[in-house]
């Protein structure tokens, strides 16, 4: 079975790229087809992979400002020649599920979400700094892209979603059914501290971009005066720093080893945004630490209230602050929290995903 993998872009590192790494471990001979690749900002191990880029990779400024080129992605992915492969796996949050495959090729799309900027435009644009001229032009472009997106979804043989929320979105937008296979964490790589080794700080690890809603936490903790450490970088950092009082500390990007120490010693991990799944809350739980999260999206599928964490119910600083003020980490058992996280271990993901692809490939062969 000859496999290829498609992903939307490789110019920033986050949860999607971690999933890509596990897929590459499963199918190490599979080339990676993507719109662009920026080696300097990606892990050095990627330089050993067979990464094949589109014409977009050579465009000026595209790697730093990939959102500005949104109308070109359909052409970029449709130009890839994938006829030699038996199976194509697209890891998609936009565009790459639009690759064109031969009838003999099985296309499985592991859908992180239908594109937020297309299908949740008003919420997305509210959190982005977009000029008035662009706001006038965008609806015309987005109308074309929505039509293309649905057409592209019709080329997929089987959808796999990362959460129940994404299943519902796929059904609503694409009128397609999807299985669920949760994204993985490497639970064994995280370690537990005893309760007496827990520090006094709360922790956030995130890209600092508007839709992550880190501003809710900055405002809440600035009001409470409790220590909050924020790991990560992004274009929203400067604005967040202006909101923060001295008890909120921005650490920037830190090493994996330091991240694991921060996880295992935090009083609780804070997850203020709405994610379709969210790997960082699971990594915190693999470290035995409880999570305080907004009660929406994937957090509802990965956090057990009162057992592995607590929820705040309104997307406001006041709602979060109310939960944090009453929070007592001693009420949570680190061993129980870790055992919950182990259900999402990479070994579980690899087994489920490999079985799904093999089953669908057998069915596909029978239909040829």
- Give the count of structural domains: 2
Roughly what is the average pLDDT, rounded to an integer? 94
Q: Beta-sheet strand percentage?
A: 5-15%
Q: Please name the CATH topology of the largest domain.
A: Rossmann fold
What is the tally of helical segments? Answer: 14
Query: What is the straight-line distance between the termini?
Result: 15 Å
Count of beta strands: 13
Specify the CATH class of the largest domain: Alpha Beta
Strand ordering within the main sheet:
3-2-1-4-5-6-7
Low-confidence stretches: none
Structural class: alpha/beta
Order of helices and strands: EHEEHEEHHHEHEEHEHEHEHEHEHHH
List the helices and strands and how they pair.
Elements: E1 3-7, H1 15-26, E2 32-34, E3 51-53, H2 73-78, E4 87-92, E5 106-111, H3 116-119, H4 121-126, H5 132-153, E6 158-161, H6 164-174, E7 178-180, E8 202-205, H7 214-224, E9 228-231, H8 237-243, E10 248-252, H9 256-265, E11 268-271, H10 280-286, E12 291-294, H11 299-302, E13 309-312, H12 317-326, H13 334-341, H14 346-367
Parallel strand pairs: 1-2, 1-4, 2-3, 4-5, 5-6, 6-7, 8-9, 8-11, 9-10, 11-12, 12-13
């Amino acid at each position: 079975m000859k496999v290829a993998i498609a992903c939307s872009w490789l110019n920033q590192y986050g949860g999607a790229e971690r999933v890509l790494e596990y897929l590459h471990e499963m199918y190490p001979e599979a080339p990676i087809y993507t719109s662009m690749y920026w080696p300097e900002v990606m892990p050095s191990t990627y330089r050993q992979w067979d990464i094949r880029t589109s014409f977009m990779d050579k465009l000026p400024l595209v790697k730093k400002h990939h959102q500005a080129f949104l109308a070109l992605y359909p052409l970029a992915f449709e130009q890839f020649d994938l006829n030699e492969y038996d199976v194509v796996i697209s890891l998609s949050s936009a565009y790459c599920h639009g690759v064109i495959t031969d009838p003999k090729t099985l296309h499985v799309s592991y859908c992180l979400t239908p594109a937020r900027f297309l299908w949740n435009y008003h919420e997305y644009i509210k959190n982005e700094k977009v000029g008035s001229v662009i706001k006038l032009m965008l609806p015309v472009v987005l109308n074309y892209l929505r039509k293309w997106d649905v057409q592209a979804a019709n080329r997929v043989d089987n959808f796999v979603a990362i959460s129940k929320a994404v299943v519902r979105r796929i059904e609503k937008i694409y009128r397609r059914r999807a299985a669920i296979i949760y994204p993985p964490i490497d639970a064994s790589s995280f370690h537990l501290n005893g309760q007496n080794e827990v520090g006094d700080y709360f922790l956030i690890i995130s890209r600092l971009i508007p839709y992550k809603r880190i501003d809710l936490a900055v405002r809440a903790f600035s009001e409470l005066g409790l220590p909050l450490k924020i790991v990560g970088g992004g274009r929203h950092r400067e604005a967040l720093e202006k909101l923060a009082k001295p008890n909120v500390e921005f650490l920037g990007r830190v090493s994996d080893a330091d991240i694991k120490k921060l996880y295992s010693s935090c009083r609780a991990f804070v997850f203020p945004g709405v994610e379709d799944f969210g790997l960082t809350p699971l990594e915190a739980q693999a470290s035995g630490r409880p999570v305080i999260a907004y009660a929406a999206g994937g957090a509802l599928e990965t956090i057990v209230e009162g057992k592995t964490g607590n929820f705040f119910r309104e997307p406001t600083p006041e709602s979060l602050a109310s939960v944090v003020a009453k929070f007592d980490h001693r009420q949570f058992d680190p061993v129980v929290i870790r055992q919950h996280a182990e259900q999402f271990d990479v070994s579980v993901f690899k087994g489920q995903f490999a079985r799904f692809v093999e089953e669908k490939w057998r069915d596909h062969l029978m239909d040829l």
